[in-house]
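Hi F.,

I've been meaning to write this up properly since the lab meeting, where we talked about keeping a consistent format for the predictions we share between groups. The idea is simple: the sequence comes first, exactly as it goes in, then the structure tokens exactly as they come out, then a line or two of notes. No screenshots and no reformatting. I'm using this chain as the first example so we have something concrete to point to.
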Amino acid sequence: MEERQTMKKQKTASPRYAWCADLGGTKIAVARVSATGAVSHRQEAPTPPEGGKAVVEALCALLQQLPAAGVCAIGVDVPGLARPDGTVWAPNLPGWTKMPLRRQLARTFNVPVVVESDRNAFVVGEAWMGAARGCEDAVYLIVGTGIGAGILSGGRLLRGHQELAGAVGWMATREDYQPEFAGVGCLEAFLAGPGLAREASRRLGRPVDTRELVRLGRAGDPLARQLWEEAGGRLGIALANLTDILNPAVIVVGGGVSRAGSLLLAPARRALRQWGQPLAARHVRVVGSRLGADAGLLGVARLAFDSHQTSAADGAARQERTS
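Output, unedited:
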């Protein structure tokens, strides 16, 4: 109750900061973000493995450690589907099939709350302060444990009929269907971290993770270089499809697998130019993320500030009509 009263007093302060959280399957990261994009007062904690309300409680406990002065809103990105009503489906969090996250946070802290899917937060963050800065037509492609994309078209998030736009892991990049595609999709089965590690381990005859595969590739190991060439070619086909359909100015590639850098992106760019619509493929930039783990925090901060401004404008308009 004391925290709620504190936050209520701060609603009248100048909107200089947002409390932001990047909620993952294994870790929760929070920070205070200024209206100019400065990230400070970071805090992290493991995501409670039992899921359910324990995750919400852990998130609230972390947020309460941040300075409250000047905070106008809260933004949280989640590893799953954030519905328009603020409920969340997150398959990696037990019990999160329809978690009313926005309502619970708004009730606790008494400020506007934005809840967004992580891939959408990432593309907004990169367009605000990162590698896609100032671009209204941009894609953020996450290549990590899974694969997904956040899409800006004409400056607006492209969400789709059921908020499922950007499920790029299911993109078909080969003709022969495999049973494993049913669970994760064709592109994700081959290009995401687990698939890459599995194939590398099979060919090298010993357990290999993506970090070691990057090290081997940079050291010139021929088999590792071949694996990265194949992965980049598959990524390039996916980039060509995205470019042909969306015609973005920039595609930002992030996530753990993207740490391979040119090992992955150089063959991907070549495949994009080979497979893509010539004019679109010639003009799109394919770059690595500049923000890394901060992309989500900055993305939900930008969305939280926008939500606060919209709410303030609506409130002013209502007051003017009744005066």
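Notes:
The longest helix spans residues 294-322.
The longest strand covers residues 27-34.

If this format works for you, I'll send the rest the same way.

G.
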